[in-house]
Design a protein that fits this description.
With 824 residues, this protein is of the alpha+beta class.
Length: 824
């Protein structure tokens, strides 16, 4: 054939597709994915088989890892020594394998990411677990296939009494697919298999009575069973794993101690990351991080600052570091030389099917061996009964072949029996030996009957499988390491934080802090107050409110955006501390300013959020529309270009309140900088969506007037308290403020003079509470509302706080301070 005749036209596209497909299947089947039967990838299977061939059982001496790797790459795995040694190392790591398959001696790496020593320095042998995986391999239990150069045979799969795929898990990336099977506790898997053998139609719910979920060698805590069940039902799912920690308290500060890590988390990198986050102030409250781990176990100590709350710091660590990790489950394995995503039930059934095949092949092997031996013993029994004649026959025979033929002809023996008689030693002719032959023959007949009965009965076959499973369960039993919590969503940091009253202050430049309410002592009317916070020279305390640590703070900005934050997430500080910039707590845009802050304990539909703008608009939106605020905030109101938010209040939604619980409709009082006030029913403002603009609440008499605050009134018997810039205030009955329609110009709320200054704020009076007054220089005074004199609407009032050269910027109500019982 000429060169021209041997040339073929091949399309490049088809050639590339064919070559890539062959390569893909080679990687998928021959390297990256485990077999669903023994749970091993080819490299792991070849390592164990090579060690088995070398006689490196759990009771043998250690041999150099280089010797093992050399045998594996020379006979079975032509992919380089590094790949083989890395696989061997992983099988020896107690932090990687739930049940170690290799017993290593030397440096086999650490959870800190340290690499193992070179293979010439380490030694290894098989563990007892590996012996169970290889048990009965010499009894024809599995198929053997040619190795890469067809010079030897290697097992296609191992017999494996251990459900290794689920017990040790597996992970690997193939071409276009990946597997990530978590490890499990052996005894749980075995219990599920036993139940499934007896109840073939068992459901996943039945199986989950035995299998709690994954059980990682490094322990940790799995939160939520939803992801576990989803993975078991579909073959894919995600679970959250958290480090196991505890708090150690001293007289001055707390320490967070990490006892267990999520699976496959590098401890050294974690410690380094925590230290960097603390240094960069991403996580506040950490003074030092040190690793005190030893051979006894993991112990990473995170020392906190004196004022830090351990629960809050811990929560931030979970969110910002691998102390909380997500494990994506993919139950992908090789079945009939094809990749397949399994459900948990399918994997369990498949392992049972594999074990049945192994046991059947082993019984057939043992049955044939027993029958062959019994056949020989039958010939020996015949020989012993006619021993004298047989000896005479052998003596007269010309040679061995003639003697063999004579025995077959005269005593109807088989070739094998005749040969056994000729090879029989004279010592077998003694009485004791003759008895042994009889007993052995009887025992073999019983064994043959037993083995034959197993092959004929599925129930007896199942009993054999169950007995072997119970044997490995008892042999390798250990306790669960990973704790599983019922519901991830139910984990709430609030459960760990005391719910106490605090004062939250915010400066004009946006510095916020919380201080326990007990830090402020009540003072007499006219006192000068205590400093509530130091500020920068160009800053001053602008607003404050009193709430509980479990409440939610709603931040409404000048641009109509709304953000929310739990009170306990605001850093606690001393009375004189500046606080922390609020931009570090919520994601404000550049130039965006917080104009109103209010608190709520829930987001029920029976309440509305009313927004008041500087230009006199009011908008009412159901509070439930703000329960899922994103970290970047949401649009709360649409504003005109020259308008901005002044304040916001929560009001009742009477349409959703039961008639039996219905009280008089709430009223709204809106006050202006020039001392005007309008009073109207909340029903005059209907609920609208978050993006609505709102309607007019008050019209201004003077062009330079604007809204400075509002109050919600629950009954005609209430009083309102007005306070001016110069610390002048009064209590006035609500009935003195004439009820008008929404949108009117209103009536005088306070008689303003040069002595009083302009109006600062208005609150409803509650004598069970105190009044907090805040000045621009950061002084705060607490006054009993009962001590403030009542006065008419068109009056100025009395001195509430002696501001001297300062001015009042904000007022608010707060709970009365609890008094200690006097001792007798």
């Amino acid at each position: 054939m000429s060169i021209e005749e041997s040339i073929q036209d091949i399309k490049i596209k088809e050639s590339v597709e064919e070559s890539y497909l062959e390569y893909s299947m080679s990687v998928i089947i021959g390297r990256a994915l485990p077999d669903a039967r023994d749970g091993l990838k080819p490299v792991h299977r070849r390592i164990l088989y090579a060690m088995h061939e070398l006689g490196m059982g759990s009771r043998s001496a250690y041999k150099k890892s280089a010797r093992i790797v050399g045998d594996v790459i020379g006979k079975y795995h032509p992919h380089g020594d590094t790949a083989v040694y890395d696989a061997l190392v992983r099988m020896a790591q107690d932090f990687s394998m739930r049940l170690q398959l290799i017993d290593g001696q030397g440096n086999f790496g650490s959870i800190d990411g340290d690499r193992a020593a070179a293979m010439r320095y380490t030694e290894a042998k098989m563990t007892a677990v590996s012996e169970e995986i290889l048990r009965d391999i010499e009894k024809g239990t599995v198929e053997f296939i040619p190795n890469y150069d067809a010079s030897q045979k290697e097992p296609e799969v191992l017999p494996s009494r251990i459900p290794n795929l689920l017990v040790n898990g597996s992970n690997g990336i193939a071409v276009g697919m990946a597997t990530n099977i978590p490890p499990h506790r052996l005894s749980e898997i075995v219990d599920a298999l036993l139940h499934l053998i007896d109840n073939k139609e068992a459901s996943l719910s039945d199986i989950l009575e035995f299998i709690q979920g994954p059980d990682f060698p490094t322990g940790g805590i799995i939160y939520g069973k939803g992801g576990i069940r989803e993975a078991y039902e579909t073959g894919r799912g995600r679970i959250k794993i958290r480090a196991k920690t505890h708090i150690e308290k001293s007289k001055t500060k707390d320490m967070i101690v990490i006892d267990e890590l999520p699976y496959q988390v590098n401890k050294a990198n974690l410690v380094k990351q925590i230290a960097e986050l603390a240094k960069e102030k991403v996580i506040d409250g950490i003074s030092e991080v040190r690793d005190e781990s030893d051979r006894e176990g993991i112990r990473v100590v995170i020392e906190l600052k004196k004022e830090a709350m351990s629960e809050i710091v811990l929560n931030h660590l979970f969110k910002s570091t691998p102390m909380e990790d997500t494990f994506g489950i993919i139950l992908l394995a090789i079945c009939d030389k094809r990749p397949k995503i399994f459900t948990l039930l399918e994997l369990l059934h498949f392992f049972i099917f594999h074990r049945k095949n192994v046991v059947i092949r082993r019984i057939i092997f043992e049955l044939e061996k027993a029958r062959a031996r019994a056949h020989i013993l039958e010939g020996l029994r015949i020989a012993l009964e006619h021993i004298d004649k047989i000896i005479e026959l052998i003596k007269k025979s010309k040679d061995t072949k003639d003697a063999n033929n004579q025995l077959i002809q005269h005593y109807q023996l088989s070739e094998t029996q005749a040969q056994a008689i000729l090879e029989m030693r004279l010592q077998r002719l003694s009485g004791l030996e003759r008895t042994k032959i009889q007993e052995e023959y009887k025992r073999l007949l019983e064994e043959i009957a037993h083995l034959d009965a197993i092959l004929k009965s599925e129930d007896k076959l199942n009993e054999v499988i169950k007995e072997e499973l119970l044997e490995v369960r008892e042999k390798f039993y250990d306790e669960r390491r990973t704790i599983i919590e019922e519901d991830y969503d139910s984990i709430d940091i609030e459960d760990l934080i005391p719910n106490e009253s605090v004062v939250v202050t915010m400066s004009h430049r946006g510095y916020v802090k919380r201080v326990p309410l007990r830090s402020y002592e009540k003072q007499n009317r006219g006192g000068k107050g205590k400093v509530s916070g130091n500020t920068h020279e160009d800053d001053f305390i602008e607003s404050f409110f009193v709430s509980d640590t479990h409440d939610t703070i709603l931040f409404i900005t000048d641009r109509g955006q709304l953000y929310w934050l739990k009170v306990y997430k605001i850093p606690e500080a001393g009375r004189t501390a500046i606080g922390k910039a609020v931009v570090n707590l919520i994601k404000l845009e550049a130039g965006e300013k917080i104009m109103a802050t209010i608190t709520t304990k829930d987001f029920n539909e029976d309440k509305s959020l009313a927004f008041f703008t500087k230009k006199g608009l009011i908008k009412r939106t159901n509070l439930s529309e703000f329960k899922n605020v994103r970290s970047i905030g949401i649009r709360a109101i649409s504003l005109d270009e020259d308008d901005e938010i002044v304040t916001a209040k929560i009001i009742q939604n009477y349409s959703l309140i039961e008639p039996a619980n219905l009280s008089a409709p709430q009223q709204i009082l809106v006050v202006t900088y020039k001392g005007m006030c309008v009073r109207f029913l909340t029903d005059e403002v209907r609920e609208v969506g978050r993006n609505a603009r709102g309607v007019t609440a008050i019209r201004f008499k003077e062009e330079n007037d604007y809204v400075i605050g509002a109050a919600v009134i629950n009954s005609e018997n209430e009083e309102v308290l007005s306070v001016s810039e110069k610390g002048i205030g009064k209590r006035t009955e609500v009935s003195e403020y004439r009820m008008t329609k929404r949108g009117g110009k209103g009536v005088i709320a306070m008689k303003l003079t040069q002595k009083t200054g302009q109006l600062v704020g208005i609150v409803s009076v509650d004598e069970s509470m105190d009044l907090m007054v805040l000045t621009g220089n950061g002084k705060m005074i607490r006054v009993d509302m009962h001590s403030i004199r009542k006065a008419g609407r068109n009056t100025s009032g009395v001195i509430i706080v002696n501001v001297q050269d300062e001015w009042v910027v904000s007022i608010a109500k707060c709970p009365k301070e609890e008094k200690e019982d006097e001792q007798d």
